[in-house]
Each structure stands twice: as C-alpha cells, then as structure tokens.
Amino acid sequence: xxxxxxxxxxxxxxxxxxxxxxxxxxxxxxxxxxxxxxxxxxxxxxxxxxxxxxxxxxxxxxxxxxxxxxxxxxxxxxxxxxxxxxxxxxxxxxxxxxxxxxxxxxxxxxxxxxxxxxxxxxxxxxxxxxxxxxxxxxxxxxxxxxxxxxxxxxxxxxxxxxxxxxxxxxxxxxxxxxxxxxxxxxxxxxxxxxxxxxxxxxxxxxxxxxxxxxxxxxxxxxxxxxxxxxxxxxxxxxxxxxxxxxxxxxxxxxxxxxxxxxxxxxxxxxxxxxxxxxxxx
Length: 281
Fold this sequence. Notes:
Helix content is 30%, strand content 22%. The chain is built from nine helices and eleven strands. Helix 7 crosses helix 8 (196-203). The model has no long low-confidence stretch (mean pLDDT 89).
C-alpha cells in the first residue's frame, strides 16, 4: 500500500531560517552568535540600584564573561537543551542523546530515477523516518538517513569524538535500557552505517534498479533525541521552567519532535501561546 502526495514540496530551509532571522531583526530583535551560555540567574545588585535592573531582572552570562539582561528567557537549544535547562536549576531529564543520520546521494546522471519524495511507513516504535528519497532544490537526490549513536553532540562526521559528550551518553541508564531493548535494531543500523551495500539493499525495496554504483556517501545530520530514564524515546513536546525566583521567568522547550522544520510556524505559535500563559503577558 502507498499514499500518493503529488503536492508535497521541498524548500531550502537555510533560506527559510535566514528569512525568519531577517523578520526578527526588522521587528527590533538582535541576534548574537558565538554566545555560549554558562549562567542564568536573577540580577543581584542592579535590581535595586537601577531602573534597568527592575525592568530587566534576569541575567544571562556567556563563557567570555559577557552579560545581557532581560525580562524573560525562552530557550530552544536542540542538542544542548538539557544542559541549558540544568543551568537554570531544572531537572536533567529528559536527557539529550545525539543520533547521527548519514545520507547517500544519487550520482547526477542517476537522479532521473527519482521524480518525487518517497517515504517508507515508519516503525511506530522509533521516531526515525527510515530511508527515504528526497529530491533537493539544486536537483540532487538524498537517500537516507540511517540512525546511529553519535560520539559527539555536534558529531557530523564518522570519527568526530568528544570525551565529555561520549561519557555523558554512555553513563546514562536510559540509554542502556534503550539499547538492550532494541539490540538487534541498533546493530543493524551500525552495520548499514559501515557498509554501503547494506544501505543500498534498503533502498532497493523502493527502487530495485538502484545499485551500489549509483550512489555516493553524502552529508550527515545529528538528531537531538530526548530520552527519559526508563529508556523511552520522547516523541512529544516537553516544556519546562527553572526553579526558585528565576523559574517564573524561564521557559525551556526541551523537545520539539519531527517534523519541526515543516511545522515551524505552527510550533512557534504554540510556544508563543505557552509564553503568554506562563509569563501572564
């Protein structure tokens, strides 16, 4: 059985994100990059000594010692959402465990074989979509992705490794419970990640004509998968706030499930509604 969706579209999401950024700046917002947050707290001295302290009572400090003051904080930190939440006194769970997804690409002369999006019926036990065929805006066709544990939160390459990120993942009991329950599935994914022929075999279920000579290794992405202590993959929204005085001024978006890009405008409205409710704006 298959579902035909002839009006499914593809966009360049980098351009979409840049357009969002431009709208934000035109509305008076400021975008700071290379700003690694290390602390969030209520401003101590300025709150009683200056008008700005009363107006902007929350202090955010980065790794360089730079500070900004604000009224409220909304975080959507993806791969670092759990760590950012902990900084403000929240529970460390759900924990973020990074899964890398590797893509293959069809050779340019073989792209004619795919004329539209092809998606398998996903396994309801996992939030991963499985191998699918995606024509891109530039005419290329991406195939995949798989889903394997990444050894670094921003580990987009096979041999990217961070001791801290690795230990953070493998010492988490929730990950081991997930692994032990799905050992066969996990080993199969790792095998396919290593051997191109195994990935091609998956693709041939949908287009039998595809051969190993038609594909090249492509880019990779990293999924910020939220995981609870019982080893359950969190597949719904998780909102959280800080503790103490700062708790009423922070909203953490701990998990935003797929398709987050496709649903970004609807998700933004949902978060805005939650902001209004929590902060009584």
